[in-house]
Fold this sequence. Notes:
Distance between the termini: 37 Å
Helix content: 25-40%
Strand order of the largest sheet: 2-1-3-6-12-13
Largest sheet: 6 strands, mixed
Order of helices and strands: HEHEHEEEHEEHEEHEEEE
Strand content: 15-25%
Structural class: alpha/beta
Oligomer: single chain
Amino acid sequence: MLTQAQLKQNVAQAAVEFTLPFLAPDVVLGVGTGSTVDLFIDALAPYRDRFRGAASSSERSSARMRQHGIEVFDLNHVEVMPLYVDGADEIDGGLSMIKGGGGALTREKIVSSVAQRFVCIVDESKQVQTLGRFPLPIEVIPMARESVIRRLRALGGEPMLREGFVTDNGCQILDVSELTITDPAKLEAHLNNIPGVVCCGLFALAGADIVLVSGQAGVRQIERAAS
């Protein structure tokens, strides 16, 4: 029986193998944040001379890549990326996700928007029928925190401030439980329109294009159904 750590290592290696055909001297990759992405960065490092560098969704990932000799680019200097590789806290059958357990949801959404494909890498424990078991992270401007909390409670959610945590953008995170998310795209659009919300951790309007899922039988690939 493989441990979760081994499952993460397997999917990180599979993600590197998926990425290799896209590498070229002028290519910039998009790289996300989290424990599985850390393993992806480590596994990608031996191939750093085969691509130009990466744009990162967090200071944590940027630091790890620089330690490996991978050049990190400001996204403002990147016009296109073939891939954005990142994990998820939950992913459903339509490849909509909840992200932001590490607090980098806004930058993750920004960097992924520049990429041609979003490749999500997870172990099988992250697959769900309906999103919402994992509390939904919402990044808020501090002065708006209480007004946003009231709006979230009106929607049936139970928000909790992530104590002692400040995002790379200088904002706060509300983790919202008690939500059953049957229409992720509709809820994402609604939450993003609440004044004071910087970004919500639903990735449904632009979900994953491909997911690599690590399980006991190996790593399998799922592609978004054609619309």
